[in-house]
Amino acid sequence: MGLLRERRERPGRRFCPWRPAGISRRDTPAVDLLYFALLCSVLIFVHELGHFVWAKIFGVKVLTFSIGFGPKVLRFRGRETEYCVGLLPLGGFVKMLEENRQEPVLPEDRKRTFEAQALWKRVIIVIAGPAMNILFPVLLYFSVFVGETRFSPPTVGFVLPGHPAEGKLAPGDRVLEVDGERISTFAELARIIGESPGKELRLKVFRDNEHVEVVVVPEEKVVRKPLDIVEKVGEIGIKPSRPAAVVGISRPDSPAYRAGLRTFDLVTEVRGRPVKTFADLETALSENHGETVPVTYLRPVKVPRAFGGLAEMAVYESGVAALTPEGGHGDLEERTGLESADLYVFDVAEGSAEWSADMRPGDRIVEVDQAAVTAWATFLERLLVAPDRPHTVTWLRGGVKKSGTILLRREDWIDEYGQHRPRYFVRASNWSPVMPEAYVEHASLLPFALRSALDETYDVIRFIVVGIVRIVEGKVSISTLGGPITVYDVVGEEGSKGVSYFVWAMAVISINLGLINLLPIPVLDGGHLLFFMFEAVSRRPLPLRVREIASLVGLLVLFVLMGVAFKNDVERRWDVIQGQLRELVD
Q1: Tell me, which fold does domain 155-240 have in CATH?
Q2: Which residues of 521-542 are buried (b: 16+ CB within 10 A; e: fewer)?
Q3: Same CATH fold, 342-433 and 155-240?
Q4: How far apart are CA 4 and CA 10, in angstroms?
Q5: Other residues' Cβ atoms within 10 Å of the Cβ of residue 386
Q6: How many CB atoms neighbour CB 189 within 10 A?
Q7: Name one GO biological process term (predicted).
Q8: Which tens digits make up the pLDDT trace of 55-67?
Q9: What topology is assigned to 342-433 in CATH?
Q10: Which listed residue (6, 9, 48, 282) is catalytic?
Q11: Does the pLDDT value for residue 441 go beyond 80?
């Protein structure tokens, strides 16, 4: 009847790093149709299988088990049940022996009718279909998570200033245990931290060839999601990968600048020795106090209007610089003028408030509202904590301080759920790539996959339930409902990306199907449960005539909702529908 979908990317998705603007990768309509038929058939089979199995368990006579409607393309008869596959995979049914006015029931079968079963048995038979649709995604998600083989180790790559980990953890620390629980991946560490806002955590860390204990208390972070869903998670301010050896140079009189190095150069070798991270660069130059060494680098050069303006890209130019660090015992920046490029502006949108304030690529951010910033993440936090008011930003250019006032660009928009939301944009960006650590195997892959599958299923169920509540409350427009065309489009889009994406989409749609079937609308499973509730209260079944009228009303309501969903589909996808129909005809 309808589809509510949370727009987020699944963990572990890997995307093509570049794709021309306006071009998306999709299969042909015929392939999309195949994906759609496969998904519908599987989910309907799972749903009807729930009803069928429990009916058999309780001894109810099942006359027909059918997947699909219309002409039968496959049919065979078992001992007492006919099994059918219809041409149109848009529904299915399990026909049980029932007492009604149309079909007489033989005396020997009277105990095997659906009505003859105890109330609790009938409840289980009815609820088994939606339950299968809700539980089936656990298996689907599990199959995706158990197939993940690329896990980052629990090694600290970067510590954000002003967060609980500052001064307690350092880049290169390997976290081995949290409160006595052994961990082997960064994902496990992030999960435990996220579940522990305000709770003291004891970390066993391997640092400098010895084990140390670190106590840290995650700060509480409020995460606002669509449909006004609010979550509180823990955060300590660490990232898993170390910054690459991309340098920033703020002083034109520094040895690095005089040697020909420039901001955003990616150092690859020092004296012939490979350099991957900025920490490697610091180590390579740590004992040098005046000796000239060759430094090999790659310099990104932007290509204007690449591919006719379809993409933004840069190419590397290689070079070698003869760097002579100054003597003394200062840090790397003091002796060479080299530092991480994290705080340097790589790009500024022309015409933006940042551009009008005279901020330019290559500037080094120093302060926001007279408060020093030591990381780009801190710079963004200071701007976004009060996005509606002007901020005074100070930066360095050629060793000279400059400042300007910036008001973030605001866009008011209506999201796909009909809710009004403001968005704020920082029109300046940095470029500070990271070097991922070598991937490791998960020490407890099966428990991890099961837990992740249960968590993901719970999140989707909560999202859909909240979405239905918001529609009933009038806070979300009914125009957000999608029907078969939306399902077709989603399935085709995800199926074209690969099997795991298709499985992911199938899981979300299965949960939608299960929860929608539980709505208290006669003719749906939820409507039957509503009848059973009245029967439990009155101690007798509702009269057949009342059930027939209620089912007719429920059918009308269902047709109205389906019509609304179909109308929404057509309005959103009219151009796409026309294009794909032309492709099918041609």
Answers
A1: Pdz3 Domain (2.30.42)
A2: bbbbbbbbbbbbeeeeeeeeee
A3: yes
A4: 16
A5: 11
A6: 23
A7: proteolysis
A8: 999 999 999 999 8
A9: Pdz3 Domain (2.30.42)
A10: 48
A11: yes
Are the C-beta atoms of residues 170 and 205 closer than 8 Å to each other? no
Averaged pLDDT, 568-577? 71
Gap between the Cα atoms of 114 and 59, Å rounded: 9
pLDDT for 172-224, tens place per residue? 999 999 999 999 999 999 999 999 999 999 999 999 889 999 999 999 988 87
Amino acid at 276: K
**What tens digit of pLDDT does each residue of 519-549 get?**
888 888 898 899 999 989 988 888 878 888 8
- Per the DSSP assignment, residues forming a β-bridge with 394 are 367, 403
pLDDT at 499: 78
Q: Which residues contact 334 (CB under 8 A, 6 or more apart)?
A: 326, 328
Phi/psi-derived region of residue 271, left when phi > 0, alpha when psi is between -120 and 50, beta in every other case: left
Q: pTM to 2 decimals?
A: 0.74
258-292 exposure pattern, b = at least 16 Cβ within 10 A, e = fewer: ebebebbbbbbbbeeeebebbbbbbebbeebeeee
Say whether pLDDT at 432 is over 70. Answer: yes
Confidence of residue 25 (pLDDT cuts 50, 70, 90): very low
Best CA proximity match to 281, nearest among 212, 231, 333? 333
339 catalytic per annotation: no
